[in-house]
Amino acid sequence: MTETVKQQLQHLRARGYRNIRVDTPLDPDFFACFTKDMDGESALIRYAIDCEEPVFHGHDLFGFNRYCNAAIPQKGRFGNVVIDYPNVLKKGLQGILDEIDALRPQADEEALAFYDAIGEIYDACFHIVKKYRLAAEEAGNERLAKALLHVPCCGARDYYEALITVRFLSFILRIANHVHLPLGRFDQYMKPYYDVSVAAGATEEELLELTELFFIALNFDTDLYIGIQKGDNGQSMVLGGCDRAGNDAFNDLSELCLHTCEELSLIDPKINLRVTPRTPLALYERGTKLTKQGLGFPQYSNDDVVIPALTALGYDPEDARDYAVAACWEFIAQYNGADIPNIYYMNFPQVIDRATRESLPHCRTFEEFLTEVRRHLLAECDTLMERFNKSTFGGHPQPLISSFITPCIARGRDLTRGGAKYNNFGLHGAGISTAADALEAIRCGIFERCEMTAEELIAALDANFEGHESLRQTLLSYPKMGNNEDAPDSLAAFLMETYSEGLNGKPNCRGGVYRAGTGSAMGYITYASKVGATADGRLAGAPYASSFSPSPNVRLNGPLSAILSFTKHDMRKICNGGPFTIEIHDTVFRNDEGERKVAQLIKSYIDLGGHQIQINAINRDRLLDAQAHPENYPNLIVRVWGWSGYFCELDKVYQDHIIQRVEFGV
């Protein structure tokens, strides 16, 4: 790490740059006069861009930092899409406008309105670029000023110019309030520009410094880009995996990015490694060094599961091989997709509770009850699809982000009007382990051991177990998912199989299909809070596990048993995304042997057919101390669900859940 990088890192961590910002001046009459059409949308974005003034942070080689906190509404705006970085890097904004000009003679009225809106917004983009160029000249920042004469208006010519272009794209789209903007397969689309700089004589040290300064730049202003909590900003980056032809694509830039993250220890970019059962242990060991830093990443995705799953859902094989992840973990096509991969949740414990109350008293056998559970799950799938097929998600025009999604310009259509190639909806699957544990408790308690009746169980649930503590303890004593016991694990598989059958491939309202997943996002808190006591012994409102994990406070035999439990289902059938998530005590990482064991554990999950895994290296005592004395831990990082954030910036309910999670040794 050079002195320049150290100084810039110190400047970032001091957080003084946050005091420079101003609120965007609001003119209610100005905003009220716009309808949600192309002209109104382009005017809003131009207004927000024009409010920006150049701001440089420390030794700033990239610029494009936020001066104003734009007031453009976020509701209905697309995120969770990987824009066509290669196209913009190759052509620049002017090249895209030239493409539009060539299409105008054959364009219909809707296409012309779309093209005009892009032109209006790009004019504002050129204006802010000029502002930054002149400010860089005045500040003596000659390198940036010279680069801005060329990019982002024209195509990038080397690695530095490519980095500026990516930085600009993030800046301009976030002004338009497209919050969750993944970086996609950075090591693939940036590699040609990296190679040009290498051929021109750039040293490894120079390229590392550029990458580190760029990664630091990504961390400025992240507090403005909030999904649910600070840190939930969507800046995920995918490294490795295969190329569009199926060849291994891990390269020198992939390693450089890993090295950069390890040195900086920042929350962004959030690294995802694509792997297969053929991936050597050495790469898992390399990734584990980042986990050791307490970053909560890399998250690992299994190509051998994901690629067949995507092709089965209708993605072309080349696009499936080139998949990236959305803001958290959802698997999406790069550059040409307008999927909404987190449109809602399947709240598994809620459905099981409904079946328990409505159907359980009438069932003579557990098999009869499972038939009823299946009926309720399929009905819930139908209800959710009917609801969202009547929706208008992303209904108002979004010309800026559409201009960066292929083939919107060629089709002359905004991504809300069918311009993108893929338009699928993905649902999360919250509380899978809680639901499976509840079914196993019903099987044991009512049908196998006859320790309670359906009526007694429902009465206890209604009372949130008050006056029924003995019954609750009995429920808690039954087998739970995560200990490699076939009974609860097979019930989880039954739930996932039914869910995927009811959802996968069913048509949506935008010409796409539905996809089932195992993620929970914030649903493990927010949706769990709306569900009463459940038959596994969980109290009303208590959180579920985060994504695809054992229920909180379940006594487990160890991490390997948990992995074996969570790899018994064919994950290709429930592959919208949602990682197996475990916490490992940070003392495990204190020597090479411990790191190697963690790497072997991750590889085991992938080798057994797991789709996605992430590991949190935590220390409960440190987290409790951070809660009590946050001023001492401003840069303590934790994995929350599909993203990493600063522990002391989280709401207490999320802090408490992280503290509550199981800590394993290996």
Protein described:
With 666 residues, the protein is α/β, with parallel strands linked by helices. It folds into three domains: 1-178, no CATH class; 190-329 and 579-666, no CATH class; 333-578, no CATH class. It is 47% helix and 9% strand. The chain has 27 helices and 15 strands. The strands form five sheets. Strands 3-4-5-12-11-15 form a six-stranded mixed beta sheet. Strands 8-9-10 form a three-stranded parallel beta sheet. A two-stranded parallel sheet has the order 1-2. Helix 15 (348-358) packs across helix 16 (366-389). The relative contact order is 0.11. The mean pLDDT is 94.
Keywords for this entry:
666 residues; 3 domains; three-stranded parallel beta sheet; 27 helices; 47% helix
- Overall mean pLDDT stands at 94
The secondary-structure class comes to: alpha/beta
* Strand composition percent: 5-15%
Number of strands: 15
Number of helices: 27
Low-confidence segments, given as residue ranges, are: none
The spatial strand order of the largest sheet comes to 3-4-5-12-11-15
Quote the distance from N terminus to C terminus. 32 Å
What's the number of structural domains?
A: 3
Gross morphology: globular
**Helical residue percent band:** 40-55%
Radius of gyration: 25 Å
User: Could you describe the largest sheet, including whether it forms a barrel?
Assistant: 6 strands, mixed
Question: How would you summarize what this structure contains?
Answer:
It contains 27 helices and 15 strands.
Write the layout of secondary structure elements.
Blueprint: H1 3-14, E1 22-23, H2 28-32, H3 38-50, E2 68-69, H4 85-103, H5 109-138, H6 142-148, H7 159-175, H8 186-189, H9 191-199, H10 204-219, E3 236-240, H11 252-264, E4 270-275, H12 281-292, E5 299-302, H13 303-312, H14 317-321, E6 324-325, E7 331-332, E8 340-347, H15 348-358, H16 366-389, H17 399-402, H18 408-411, E9 425-430, H19 432-448, H20 454-462, H21 469-477, H22 486-503, E10 514-516, H23 523-526, H24 559-565, E11 580-585, H25 592-607, E12 612-618, H26 620-628, E13 637-639, E14 644-646, H27 652-660, E15 663-664
Parallel strand pairs: 1-2, 3-4, 4-5, 8-9, 9-10, 11-12, 11-15
Antiparallel strand pairs: 5-12, 6-7, 13-14
Helix pairs in contact: 1-10, 3-5, 4-5, 5-6, 7-9, 7-10, 10-11, 12-25, 15-16, 15-19, 16-22, 19-22, 26-27
